[in-house]
């Protein structure tokens, strides 16, 4: 099937060939008619997906149920396109497969969407509009006892990602206005990116930004997981077993063998891991040798 192009909201959206939204776990009926229906979308590399990526949705779900008038109809992971060209990014096809294994085996309500992954780079504003189009225009929104209603598409992100919204030159002002003003976001606290600071600098959209403090601090990152694979260290319990098997079968993050001082310099240059000191850093004793490697986010 040829790529489809259709105009919508902020941008013209293009579907990859044979694309269809995964919706088998999307709730199509609103249980409480007084609540505002929402779908959560997490954008990122997922290189690879970790348990904490899944846990972000559970943290948000608890917060939403206890503090808001929203009703969650579904949650999606949207891996970024290969064109994002971040250091060490394995192919989108593999990152989508890993997210699918993780969501299918570990969750009863999360799904992965390949629209963003399997085409040219798409800004987050366009990704959220794509979900809006698929869920509200193609599927017709959600059924309520008073008829169909539109679903609000909301971004779920860590405070490091939302922090980049205040950095000059990273996001366009129009996109920020669209993502934060129109869609809205839940922000999960991440070690090293203080929630207060992140939200204060986006004060004009404060009403649509929901900061969520972590009750259990967890600073796992995909970078650390990749480094562990490359050093031949155990990654058990940091990510689902099925994802670990998939990575090993496809040799996605090859073991470099014992690491020398020279190699550690190269890792730092490639952006794969920051080996400099930081407040959030931790000393990890390598089981491959006697060296102590300092890891940070
Ligand atoms: N430990 C964590 N705490 C809070 N948010 C997190 C955490 N890990 C990932 N996230 C969030 O998950 C989303 C997707 O993250 P991403 O795939 O970039 O993972 P990452 O661990 O930051 O990756 P990398 O280490 O490759 O930069 C982002 O919004 C990010 O902020
Ligand atoms: O839309 C934008 O302008 C924009 C600017 C910066 C980052 N993003 C998105 O934020 C995500 C960052 O992922 P990562 O792995 O680099 O933390 C990824 O999905 C990017 O497409 C999006």
UniProtKB/TrEMBL annotation:
<feature type="region of interest" description="Disordered">
    <location>
        <begin position="254"/>
        <end position="297"/>
    </location>
</feature>
<comment type="function">
    <text>Catalyzes the formation of NAD(+) from nicotinamide mononucleotide (NMN) and ATP. Can also use the deamidated form; nicotinic acid mononucleotide (NaMN) as substrate with the same efficiency. Can use triazofurin monophosphate (TrMP) as substrate. Can also use GTP and ITP as nucleotide donors. Also catalyzes the reverse reaction, i.e. the pyrophosphorolytic cleavage of NAD(+). For the pyrophosphorolytic activity, can use NAD(+), NADH, NaAD, nicotinic acid adenine dinucleotide phosphate (NHD), nicotinamide guanine dinucleotide (NGD) as substrates.</text>
</comment>
<keyword id="KW-0067">ATP-binding</keyword>
<dbReference type="GO" id="GO:0009435">
    <property type="term" value="P:NAD+ biosynthetic process"/>
</dbReference>
<dbReference type="InterPro" id="IPR004821">
    <property type="entry name" value="Cyt_trans-like"/>
</dbReference>
<dbReference type="GO" id="GO:0000309">
    <property type="term" value="F:nicotinamide-nucleotide adenylyltransferase activity"/>
</dbReference>
<keyword id="KW-0662">Pyridine nucleotide biosynthesis</keyword>
<keyword id="KW-0496">Mitochondrion</keyword>
<feature type="compositionally biased region" description="Basic and acidic residues">
    <location>
        <begin position="259"/>
        <end position="269"/>
    </location>
</feature>
<dbReference type="InterPro" id="IPR014729">
    <property type="entry name" value="Rossmann-like_a/b/a_fold"/>
</dbReference>
<keyword id="KW-0547">Nucleotide-binding</keyword>
<comment type="pathway">
    <text>Cofactor biosynthesis; NAD(+) biosynthesis; deamido-NAD(+) from nicotinate D-ribonucleotide: step 1/1.</text>
</comment>
<dbReference type="GO" id="GO:0005759">
    <property type="term" value="C:mitochondrial matrix"/>
</dbReference>
<dbReference type="InterPro" id="IPR045094">
    <property type="entry name" value="NMNAT_euk"/>
</dbReference>
<dbReference type="Pfam" id="PF01467">
    <property type="entry name" value="CTP_transf_like"/>
</dbReference>
<dbReference type="GO" id="GO:0004515">
    <property type="term" value="F:nicotinate-nucleotide adenylyltransferase activity"/>
</dbReference>
<dbReference type="InterPro" id="IPR005248">
    <property type="entry name" value="NadD/NMNAT"/>
</dbReference>
<protein>
    <recommendedName>
        <fullName>Nicotinamide-nucleotide adenylyltransferase</fullName>
        <ecNumber>2.7.7.1</ecNumber>
        <ecNumber>2.7.7.18</ecNumber>
    </recommendedName>
</protein>
<dbReference type="GO" id="GO:0005524">
    <property type="term" value="F:ATP binding"/>
</dbReference>
<keyword id="KW-0808">Transferase</keyword>
<dbReference type="InterPro" id="IPR051182">
    <property type="entry name" value="Euk_NMN_adenylyltrnsfrase"/>
</dbReference>
<feature type="domain" description="Cytidyltransferase-like">
    <location>
        <begin position="41"/>
        <end position="226"/>
    </location>
</feature>
<keyword id="KW-0520">NAD</keyword>
<comment type="subunit">
    <text>Homotetramer.</text>
</comment>
<keyword id="KW-0548">Nucleotidyltransferase</keyword>
<feature type="compositionally biased region" description="Polar residues">
    <location>
        <begin position="273"/>
        <end position="297"/>
    </location>
</feature>
<comment type="pathway">
    <text>Cofactor biosynthesis; NAD(+) biosynthesis; NAD(+) from nicotinamide D-ribonucleotide: step 1/1.</text>
</comment>
<comment type="similarity">
    <text>Belongs to the eukaryotic NMN adenylyltransferase family.</text>
</comment>
